[in-house]
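Quick one, tokens below. Sequence please?
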């Protein structure tokens, strides 16, 4: 997909090792830095290790390690999603290469799925 994007004048940038594959421990560290066990009214919640966690105010969502596709090497975060043409290219072409969005609220986060 990256080569096709370049042919169309779009440079898809994946910056840093934590934008692609993450170990369980790396994902756990990210998750625990963004969620708390302290109850926060109206906050998004996740269950991790049989406990309820609340997304901290102003923090970006991160899946718990048992739910993150980064831990399986199937997800990638596109660093320059806000750059002109990048999101539109992905909307038009990601599925051709077997990619889709896991969460509506994470436009930069795409994952690979087995396509027909």
């Amino acid at each position: 997909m990256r080569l096709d994007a370049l042919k169309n004048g779009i440079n898809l940038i994946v910056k840093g090792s934590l934008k692609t594959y993450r170990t369980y421990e790396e994902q756990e560290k990210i998750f625990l830095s963004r969620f708390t066990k302290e109850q926060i009214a109206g906050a998004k919640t996740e269950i991790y290790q049989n406990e309820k966690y609340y997304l901290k105010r102003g923090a970006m969502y991160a899946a718990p390690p048992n739910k993150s596709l980064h831990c399986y090497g199937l997800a990638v975060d596109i660093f320059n999603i806000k750059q002109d043409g990048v999101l539109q290219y992905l909307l038009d072409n990601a599925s051709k290469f077997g990619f889709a969005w896991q969460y509506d609220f994470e436009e930069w986060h795409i994952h690979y799925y087995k396509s027909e």
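DSSP finds three helices and six strands in the chain. The radius of gyration is 16 Å.
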